[in-house]
Fold this sequence. Notes:
Protein name: GPW/gp25 family protein
Number of domains: 1
CATH topology: Nuclear Transport Factor 2, Chain: A
Largest sheet: 3 strands, antiparallel
Domain IraD/Gp25-like: 28-117
Distance between the termini: 46 Å
CATH architecture: Roll
Number of strands: 5
Number of helices: 3
Pfam families: GPW_gp25
Order of helices and strands: HEEHHEEE
Radius of gyration: 16 Å
Helix content: 25-40%
InterPro entries: IraD/Gp25-like (IPR007048)
Amino acid sequence: MMSGDFLGVGWTSPVRLDEDGRVVTAKYEDCVYQSIWTILSTAKGERLMRPDFGCGIHDLVFASNSAATIGEIVSEVTESLIEWEPRIDVLNVDVYGEHNRQNQLLIQINYKVRSTNNRFNLVYPFYLG
Length: 129
């Protein structure tokens, strides 16, 4: 089996059409990237047919910007990606704040795609209310 077969091809998120009216697809490692983004963007309980899908960080929207909150975010992100994205190994998750924005945290995820051994990172913005 080729690595592309395992990594897959799927519709982009959000779904969009190309200039010929065809659905645009995400392939291979881009498909994995979009899957990670979808996991992080989906609150647990948001999907009716799969209420356990998603990431628990959305329960922390009104938490204070503290070391405890950051620890919970790291834990939630790591656990969600391990559970819902089997094509990757989570190398580490770091959370840091913007110097001039008290309510914005940046979640940096470093991961390795298992079938290709390629390493990537993704920075996901998270806002505390």
